[in-house]
Specification:
The chain contains two helices and five strands. By secondary structure, the chain is of the alpha+beta class. The longest helix is centred in the middle third of the chain and has 20 residues, at 25-44.
Length: 92
């Protein structure tokens, strides 16, 4: 499987880093690494996330910082498509 980010998800990931970096640069790097580790796991285990009410959408959660990663799996194309990355304290 290959990971593909839709533009909005990539903007969310960049927004997380932009928000956290001025406050604590090491913390921002740790958060980003945690999110990317969770996404990397999906390459090997694409169906490990919980199915959501919306058809074809699944949710994974980063282990340390609990960011929600919404994604879809396209078996035919061999793609895990990241749709959204949000902290649970933010409304989706």
């Amino acid at each position: 499987m290959k990971v593909v980010y839709i533009r909005a998800a990539l903007e969310e990931l960049n927004g997380i880093a932009d928000y956290l970096t001025p406050r604590h640069s090491l913390g921002a790097a740790n958060v980003e690494a945690d999110i990317r580790t969770a996404i990397d796991r999906l390459v090997v285990h694409p169906y490990s996330g919980r199915a959501q009410d919306e058809a074809g959408v699944r949710k994974a959660v980063s282990s340390s910082y609990r960011y929600r990663i919404l994604y879809a799996v396209d078996d035919a194309a061999g793609i895990v498509q990241v749709l959204s990355i949000l902290h649970p304290s933010r409304q989706s």
